[in-house]
Write a structure and sequence with these properties.
This protein is an alpha/beta fold and 189 residues long. It has a single domain (5-186), classed as Flavodoxin domain (Rossmann fold), CATH 3.40.50.360. Helices cover 39% and strands 16% of the residues. It has six helices and six strands. Strand 3 (79-85), helix 4 (93-100) and strand 4 form a beta-alpha-beta unit. Helix 1 (19-33) crosses helix 6 (165-186). The longest helix is centred in the C-terminal third of the chain and has 22 residues, at 165-186.
Length: 189
Amino acid sequence: MSKPVLQIIVCSTRPGRVGKPVADWFADAARVHGAFEVQVADLAEIDLPFLDEPNHPRLQKYTHEHTKRWSARIAGSDAYVFVTPEYNYGFNAPTKNALDYLFHEWQSKPVGFVSYGGVSGGLRAVQMLKQVATTLQMFPMSAAVAIPMVAGMLSEDRRTFHPTDVVRDSARALLDELARTAPVMAGLR
């Protein structure tokens, strides 16, 4: 039996972003965990234009190739982890745009969050994301990874993330919860 697909979504698209090294670390942790086939969707590379489909996503009548590719990628996933910054007490516009492109593809799947930022560790962004995720009928995990003062955990060149033991432990807890939940949720689809 094949492993469930975990789609790790790198939410930040900003040049010089922290999200990529954090997502690279989490993807490596997920591979070591071993419960999932791990894929990474980097919104900066996917580069979805501002929602440009003429039909409501619930109809799944996509006209653009970028939407069809995004739909296939998300539909083919069994669980998601959003690696998200916090901008002005919330999550960023590219993440909302990526979510809004689709509807059915997100449903009945577990979702986890790896957030980062200053003193709050991105928790306010996650709280806002959970509202959208539950509206799309995803099932948010209670375990999460919150990384406060993330700049202090980056290498000097900002390309490598060096987590604390607490951050590593929270990643394992999130992956364990996703691994327990994904097969249950698959039965709902």
